[in-house]
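Exam revision sheet. Question 4 asks you to relate a sequence to its structure. Input first:
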Amino acid sequence: MAEKNRTTALPIEELRQRLLNERQRLEHEIYELTGGDEAVATTNPPLSSGGMPGDQVDDADALSQAERNRAISTHTRQLLAQVNDALGRIEAGTYGHCINCGRLIQPARLMALPSAALCIECQMESETAPNQERRSGA
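Answer key, structure tokens:
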């Protein structure tokens, strides 16, 4: 593990600690969003008023808040998966290498985003490829 990472001159232990701290923060955020349940609370906000017409605004607000919480929870879970993947790469000794092309990821990129799995070139390519397909009608 340490052999590959020494060549990148990365402060692996510092980055590992940052990832562990981020994992703890994300897990807490998910806990707060879900009220301690694994899944986001599955209430049916539009039915919470019993269908009373005067409560339609309240129902819309509740639905909107539930949808926001679902979206935030989904995004937070994706970030948590990225953090866990990065910690796995540290343990495997492959941290700091692009998972797409195998090149070294710039240390400044990893310091800014410790969970980065792609070098900047592969990241840019992954972000522009879907846009090109949409423009061409694919």
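Marking note for examiners. The CA atoms of residues 47 and 59 lie 8 Å apart.
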